[in-house]
Amino acid sequence: MFDLVPFRNRSRRDVVERDEDPFNSLVSGFFDDVMDFAGRSFRADIKESDEEYTIEAEMPGMKKEDIQLEINDDYLTISAEHQEEKEEKKENYIRRERRQGKYTRSFYLENVNQDDIKAEYDEGVLKVHLPKEEKTPVKKRTIDIE
Predict the structure, then answer these.
(1) For residue 111, is it left (φ>0), alpha (ψ between -120 and 50) or beta?
(2) DSSP 17-58
(3) Which residue of 41, 87, 100, 146 has the fewest CB atoms within a 10 Å radius of its CB?
(4) pLDDT tens by residue, the chain, 146 residues
(5) What is the pTM of this model?
């Protein structure tokens, strides 16, 4: 139903070299975390019941209007774009901050009734309900060991 793709591959040599120098480890660890967060899409949990699949995507700070769901060739794409600008003026300083982010995730759909997909957004969590077209029986059998 859903594909899982590792997002980061590190060679063993990179990890060993980085760990040899404590300063390098501290600095690169800090920037790796910051840069990884900047490039990472939102987190999503996928649940399955007898009747449906449910995707729960964490999207804190987003408004419902910022989120788009689209189905194309059996792929559900969830995308969100957020822009925020704050300006604060006081006696001797001016502070102006801008944040912008665009996040996209796609999920392959199989055995889903695409016409009955429903979504809801509440307190930073998007829930997408994907009803199954047919119930898939649990296949269970024992395997003999040779």
Answers:
(1) left
(2) HHHHSHHHHHHHHHHHHHHHHHH----EEEEE-SSEEEEEEE
(3) 146
(4) 454 444 444 444 444 444 455 555 555 554 444 433 444 578 999 999 989 999 999 988 888 999 999 999 889 999 998 777 777 777 777 777 777 778 899 999 888 999 999 999 999 999 999 999 986 666 788 889 98
(5) 0.60
Tokens read off for 45: 């949990």
CB under 8 Å to 38, separation ≥6 — which residues? none
What separation in angstroms does the CA of 133 have from each of 33, 45, 87, 114, 115?
41, 21, 50, 9, 10
First and final C-alpha spacing in the chain = 32
Query: H or E element: which one contains 13?
Result: helix 12-20
SS3 of 132, please? strand
